Amino acid sequence: MKKRTVLLAIVGTLMAASAMAKDVTLLNASYDPTRELYKDVNQAFAAQWKAQHGDTVTIQMSHGGSGKQARSVVDGLPADVVTLALAYDVDAVADHGLLAKDWQKRLPDNASPYTSTIVFLVRKGNPKGIKDWPDLLKPGVKVITPNPKTSGGARWNFLAAWGYALKQPGGNEVKARAFVRDLYRQVPVLDTGARGATNTFAQRGIGDVLLAWENEALLSQRELGKDGFQIVLPSISILAEPPVAIVDKNVDQHGTREVADAYLKFLYSPQGQELEAKHFYRPRSAEVARKYAAQFPKVNTFTIDELGGWRQAQAKFFADGAIFDQIGPGN
Amino acid sequence: MNTMTAQRQAGWTRRMGHGVIVVLASAFLGLFLLLPLAAVFVEAFRQGVQAYVASIGQPEALTAIRLTLLVAVIAVPLNLVFGVAAAWAMTRFAFRGKALLGAFIDLPFSVSPVISGLVYVLLFGAQGWFGPWLSGHGVKIIFAVPGLVLATIFITLPFVARELIPLMQAQGSEEEEAARVLGANGWQMFFRVTLPNIRWALLYGVLLCNARAMGEFGAVSVVSGHIRGLTTTMPLEVEMRYNEYDYVGAFAIASLLAMLALVTLAVKTFLEWRYSDEIAAHAPGGH
Do A135 and A206 fall within a single domain? Predict the structure, then answer.
């Protein structure tokens, strides 16, 4: 009898304590290269939230290929927010009724607090003399890029190459198709994710050039030594806008809408923008961009809208039986 | 004289042949087993013992270890009970569909682990057969611990049964029948006759089952959702750290898994050596 009273007292105290402290937990389902970024962002946001509201917020992370992460959220991964590689993957989640279809209009700048672009990472001294897209087709040049079926970064890579070919004098769809077909003939390994491809190129030493997110290229330079690799900016590339969104159904179930909303807005705040620039994402804020101008040289870019937007691009290039399948191995 | 030389030469050729085979087998083992194993430990200690200890002591690593142990503690006993029951049914009873049961026990061996994980997503995922009902009642299976346990049970299901079936088949049921005739009830017969007869095979099955339960990657990866510190087991943590350029951390945790394998092997070898007489007595045809 006495034992039970003590036990009850302990349970009661624990419950009371947790009710007072108001601990909030958020789950952020993100893509591969953002691991380091969100480690810092989460810490800074938790500190700010604690200072403003007195509550402790813990942000849990799940990382993986962008398409795979979208699929997991659809299958029930209880993510409060998704921060993915491209808008189509958030659309896929919206199509299953987990968030409003107009999600991209709920936050500024197409709901992308930061941008990036696609660059070339080559080995020190650029032994194969790679300066622009056509150099990738030279005989003997091995190109590393992940599989566009599973990786968001890989889809940006594909579209950057396509856009380059299309925008050349006399460029058209037939020429663009031939260009990407020849490009993918130079690819010895198709990893499933951007980080896997970086490891293949940098750690395992396979290939002459890695098509990579600019943020991923800069990060691997820092992590794996500046002397090993150098970045080459092509004459034209694509403006990659990784979007962020609240998963309405999940935040309503968890009662976390307010803090999830504040979390995403934090990404647009001066402090958030500064952290993003520090982690090699191009900030939207002009002021922070000026501060990091040396890190982000001017690149000539085009946007996904010039290729008809993500839904159209997905259907045309990456759906089953679409252009990527048609030009793939054996065709 | 001539014949002796010829004989000596033939012996020498034979010894040469033996030598070549031994060298080949050892080189093969060294290349495919020992070298990677050594590489794991070399990489783990590349930055010294302190870095090794520090990366294993990180909270995420500790939760991964705890979760791995928890999953094994649930999955292994369940498969022990199932394995004994299945082996019993397969070797002591004649029933319709026996061959089918045998085939089903082997299913997890022949199905890709990724598929093993996916079937649970198809059953219990939000879009799956039972998903809407489960989420309506606040039950979480996929992307939570129950999903990890289910996938692990599925993957490790055959280990115990597959160890027991050939042994129990060879031993036959005479001793058990004798016990029943002498008045033992079912439980007495099982614990005093059957269990002592199969204990070494059972122990070996459990060891293998446990090693696989802790080391499984594919199926667990599909149902985990990779929530750091919540649903990541040790093999998943290894992949995660590798992807984060934390090579020392990745190999440090991998070295723990490698040590688990080595301990399994050592325990098995020790048991075989210590109880070799008993094992011989209970082995098929040892009566």
Answer: yes
pLDDT tens-digit series, residues A83-130 = 999 999 999 999 999 999 999 999 999 999 999 999 999 999 999 999
**A316 burial level (CB within 10 Å; 0-12, 13-18, 19+):** middle
Say yes or no for a CB contact (<8 Å) between B126 and A75.
yes
Q: Please tell me the predicted confidence (pLDDT) of residue A296.
A: 94
* pLDDT score at B284: 53
- Using the Cβ of A25 and the Cβ atoms of chain B, whether some distance falls under 8 Å is answered with no
Q: Rg for chain A (alpha carbons), in Å?
A: 22
Distance from CA of B131 to the nearest CA of A (A): 8
Q: Is residue A281 part of a domain?
A: no
DSSP string across B129-174 = SSHHHHHHTT---TTSHHHHHHHHHHHHTHHHHHHHHHHHHHH-SH
Instruction: Note down the domain range covering A97.
Output: 2-112+242-268
Give A-chain residues touching B228 at CB under 8 angstroms: 60-62
CB A269 within 8 A of CB A31: no
This complex has an ipTM of 0.79
End-to-end CA distance of chain A: 77
Q: Which residues of B touch A (CB under 8 A)?
A: 121, 125-128, 131, 135, 140, 142-143, 225-230, 240, 242-245, 247
Nearest to A195 among B125, B142, B243 (CB): B243
Q: Assign A4 a pLDDT band (cuts: 50, 70, 90).
A: low
The contacts found for B190-198 with CB under 8 angstroms, 24 or more apart, are: B194/B88, B197/B171, B197/B282, B198/B84, B198/B87, B198/B164, B198/B167, B198/B168, B198/B171, B198/B282
The pLDDT of residue B12 is 81
Within-domain flag for A140: yes
Q: Which residues on chain B are in Cβ contact (under 8 Å) with A203?
A: 247
Q: A178 in a domain, yes or no?
A: yes
Superfamily in which the B48-282 domain is placed by CATH: MetI-like (1.10.3720.10)
Average pLDDT by consecutive 10-residue portion of chain B (287 residues)? Answer: 70 84 90 90 92 92 95 96 94 89 90 91 91 87 94 94 92 89 90 90 91 93 91 94 88 94 86 73 52
| Domain spans of chain B, in order of start | 1-44, 48-282
Same domain, A94 and A149: no
Instruction: Say yes or no for a CB contact (<8 Å) between A76 and B227.
Output: no
Verify whether the Cβ–Cβ distance A64 to B128 is below 8 Å. Answer: no
The count of CB pairs under 8 A between chains A and B is 54
> Which candidate from A75, A195, A223 shows the least CB-CB separation from B127?
A75
Residue A3's CB is within 10 A of a number of other CB atoms, namely: 7
- With CB atoms and an 8 Å threshold, state whether A75 touches B240: no
CATH of the domain at A35: 3.40.190.10
Closest chain B C-alpha to A176 CA, distance in angstroms: 33
